[in-house]
Amino acid sequence: MLRKGWAGWPLVVAVTLTALGTGFSPDMVQARKANSDTGISTVVIAELPVQGRNMVKLIYQGGPFKYDKDGSMFGNRERLLPANHRSYYREYTVQTPGERSRGARRIVCGGWVPTVPDTCYYTDDHYASFRRIVQ
User: What terms describe the molecular function in GO for this protein (predicted)?
Assistant: First the structure.
């Protein structure tokens, strides 16, 4: 039995296509409607700030990441994202121009394979709210 990712398509297929160098790209994944049960709105990837779009590319490439915290476990303590296993979500910094620290902007991705996330979310207010990233 294939385990399906949260977005509904088998992770095994994505990992295999990526590993075989078939030209699989995250851009080939069609956007899905937001889960009405979660109440989370969506943001089209083209509407993200340029730093957010660049971070999405780096996530699928596996880095390199600027901050040590990038790719680390995100605990979902705010409980704003769909409930899942403790190590399911990872967080990534979206740089803010002029900001000396990591700032408030993040991308949080869920999935068992970091370079093939099931779904990703964007926050520009340090986890106070999230929007699911769609194509």
Answer: hydrolase activity; RNA binding; RNA endonuclease activity
- The single-letter code of the amino acid at 78 is E
Quote the CA–CA distance of 45 and 120 in Å, as a whole number: 10
Residues designated catalytic:
91, 126
Rg (CA), the chain: 14
pLDDT tens by residue, 56-72: 999 999 999 999 999 99
Return the DSSP state at 101: S
pTM: 0.72
Domain 11-134 top-level CATH class:
alpha beta
Where in the chain does DSSP place strands (E)?
41-44, 72-73, 89-93, 106-110, 119-123, 131-134
Q: Quote the mean pLDDT of the chain.
A: 80
β-sheet bridge partners, residue 25: none
> With bands split at pLDDT 50, 70 and 90, how would you rate the model's confidence at 5?
very low
Q: What is the DSSP string of 115-131?
A: TS-SEEEEESSTTS--E
